[in-house]
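User: Can you help me understand a structure? I only have the sequence.
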Amino acid sequence: MTKHGFLGGMGLGILAGAAMGMAVTAMGMQDPQMRRMARKAARKMEHMKCNLADNMGF
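Assistant: Let's start by predicting it. Here is the structure, written out as C-alpha cells:
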C-alpha cells in the first residue's frame, strides 16, 4: 500500500508550487507581517507533508 505515485506526485507538485510562490513573494517582501505569514505558511506545508506521508505509509 506504499505505491501511490499519483498522490505522491500531487504532494510534490503542491509543495513545489508553494515554494515557488513564496520565493517570488520573498523577493519584494519588506513588510514584517508578510514575512511572518510566509513563515507560517511554510510551517503548515511542512506539517501537511509529514502528515500526508504518515497517513500514506511513506
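Now, to help you interpret it: DSSP finds two helices and no strands in the chain. The mean pLDDT is 78. Let me know which part you'd like to focus on.
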